[in-house]
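ok trying again, last paste got cut off:
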Amino acid sequence: MKTLRMYCSIIFITIFSINAKIIETNNFEIISQYADKDTLVLFDIDNTLARPESELGSDEWFCYMIDQKIAHGYDKSSAMTAVLPLSYYALFNVPLVVTDLIVPVLLKNLTTRGIYTMGLTSRGPFLAERTYDQLINIDINFMMPPSATETALQLENPLLYKYAILFVGNNDKGDALLLFLDTIGYHPSSIIFIDDKMSHVQSVEKAAISRNINYIGIRYSGCDTYINHFDPAKADMQLHQLQQKNRKPAQQYKNSTPTNALSCWYYYLLLFLIASLVFVLLSQFFFKPHRKHRK
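nice, full thing came through this time. structure:
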């Protein structure tokens, strides 16, 4: 009985010695109040740090397309397979803007203070290069310890760490984070994670508690208006306009190629005829036979 009480006391002390809480806010400045040099600050990307200016390419557009496929009889995995090519098409054509002008400033300040920062995104490994370009263009940079080098990992699905961003894909963010931290041998005393989806915030909370890491989860609400007022018809129109823009030059080239080729042949034929005429005239001038004078 005494052993059981002691065991329960140890569990009680362990649980309540870990400080874990979740906050909902649209204010990034709150991060600076909690972060110190022993803190790892994690940022979701889409609808947290950045978003497209248009409906097209947004996270809510992607989720809408998945839901549409499921409504037509697809399971979730098949729906993802069907939607991802179009999603990639949009993401490779649509730039991002910051959700708040303070974001680049905040990241630079955290770096200056020696606080490690990292992206933790549901984007898959195949979007690593495009994501990096999009973020660099809006002055978003992260900083991680030197031990964190490019790493490809495997859970239920592949994941990739590159450019101080963990591309989780369709894996659980909490599980992916623990696997990555174990792989590089880095275990912070506290974690701050900001994401627009509560499910991800709670997933990372569960992971942090399992490793006795203090945790502050921030459910970012700054993009809720965009999410709640998503217009599928507008997104369809934007997609159509993008496709027309990308396909029009190819059509113009296709239509103009025969004419251009014909014009080239006329040009070369004309040059040949002119050269032949010049040759004939010069030949007559220089090679004209001399007539003998009669006596």
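cool. The CA atoms of residues 284 and 291 lie 14 Å apart. The two ends are 152 Å apart (CA to CA).
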